[in-house]
Amino acid sequence: MNRIPALLIFLLTALVITMGGCKPGSDRREVDHMVTVSILPQEFFVKQLAGDRFEVNVMIPPGASPVTYEPSPKQIQKIGGSMAYLKIGHIVFEKVWMDKLRSANPELQVFDQSKHVELIRHETQGKHSMGHNHGRGVDPHIWLSPEAVKVQVKNIRDMLIELDSANRKEYQNNYHTFINRIDSLDDQINKTLEGIDNRSFLIFHPALSYFARAYQLEQVAVQHEGKEPSPARLRNLIDEARKKNIRAVLIQEQFSTDEAQTLAEELNAEVIQVDPLAYNWMKNMMTIARKMQKALKGT
Hints:
Elements: H1 3-20, E1 34-37, H2 40-50, E2 55-58, H3 73-78, E3 84-87, H4 92-103, E4 109-112, H5 146-163, H6 168-193, E5 200-203, H7 209-214, E6 218-221, H8 231-243, E7 248-252, H9 258-267, E8 270-274, H10 281-297
Parallel strand pairs: 1-2, 1-3, 3-4, 5-6, 5-7, 7-8
Helix pairs in contact: 2-5, 5-6, 6-10
């Protein structure tokens, strides 16, 4: 019988500790804000400015394509807990699903990360994106240029301040810190790519248009209007690649490498995989730069 009072004391103690941990003013910070984003790099950006003040809900998981991914019912349901949706802007996923996602939360505020970014459009892509066409509209890969990301980060800062003005100063300070880190990254990429005379590269899916524009490169895309090349176009691409002495075929990790491997064998070239959708944007941009250096040098 003596064990019963001991059990009661234990349960009462646990209850007091639990209640005490929920008191306002305790050291533990409660995350009571959530924003939803489309792709993993956006989560990285938001976290640089918001820290742990916001939970970030990512719709497109690792390994999935923004062109074909369909959200699960559980993901759509989770939208109901979001204060806002931060669009990357212009990707197929958002064009197809945004209205349905908003219907899951009629009070959802939608912010556009691409606002004020100098967008690459089909009629003005020029040498930076030969053969790049997603069918209609704008090249969506705006997060693959440090200079363009600086504009996007400003948009994210403004969103956070609008959603949580009480912490304006923190978001401002974090914004300035991150901008300095982006400038440093930009310098490192320029140094990685300096001294390379041949600045043309072949890529299966044209994902690096903004990267190419930022670093004076020429992207030669295999796909055209989102489609595989015809035999005649493929032959022209091979001839062009040989003239430009291209010795590597870049391809996204989300794509099968079979066709890229076939093309690389025809050119006596190497297949180099890149992942534009990796979470750690800073690290991934340097990884892309180093792989680009390897592709351009043909080593």
